[in-house]
Amino acid sequence: MDDGEKDEVYSDFTDCVNMQPKELEEWLETEESKSVGDNHGGESTGHRSGRRIVEIKRTKKDDLTDSQYEHMQKVIGYVHRHTAQKPSGDIEESDWRYSLMNWGHDPCK
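Now predict its structure.
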């Protein structure tokens, strides 16, 4: 990935992830956060992703690794796909919103 691609990924990632690291960390501790996702007796993919997003957001842009950029691309793809599937009605206490929040995006913001 060249520098131009990295800049684009970084920009898209900061647009998609609208929760601050501390806010996301606190969310990940809630029962609502742990109640959604593909949880097969362990931590769900989204929950694990949320912890990684906190780490990425606390890393200076110049210090980000290729692996972190790959994860940022995964987050962008997830947020875009998932927001396109917005359910009708009140989303405030929906699994749909909770899943997105695990990936660092609060659609109620």
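The mean pLDDT is 95.
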